[in-house]
Amino acid sequence: MARSGCVETSEPRAGYRPCVGIFLLDQADRVFVGRRADLRQEAWQLPQGGIDPGETPDQAGLREMFEEIGTNKARLLKKSRVWRSYDLPADLAARMWKGRYKGQTQLWIAYRFEGSEADIDLAGTHPEFAAHRWVDPEQLVALTVPFKRGVYGAVLDEFRELWAD
Q1: DSSP assignment of 125-143
Q2: Which parts of the chain span the membrane according to its record (predicted)?
């Protein structure tokens, strides 16, 4: 079901940066969130990143997970059935990616984390997160910036079977 601020399509949406989103659940059914390193305000988000030319979403998911959190010790649970897109605020869209994209179009992949806290290393070459925590998935939407809330809500709806009793 589409939500406000979220457009669902069967293919990546033209004019939007193709990305993967990573929904990483731990053994206690909590989801990984990272606090953005490049923002002063407290902005938490799920790991995500662009799909490189010639790369599949599956390959991009594992690569981005390793780049952003320092590990890809995870098992695939489910891939989203649709691409979900959101618009960036106009001022941010003009600065990001040299204005080439209006926002992002994302294929979401759910994984079960099979490592330990010691495997997580946020200090990569280009750190995206200053901190991380594991939260109840139902808290996710409230923790993120408003322009991502529609997508995050739709991802929760689709993946809820992975943690709900």
Answers
A1: SS--EEEEEEE-GGGHHHH
A2: none
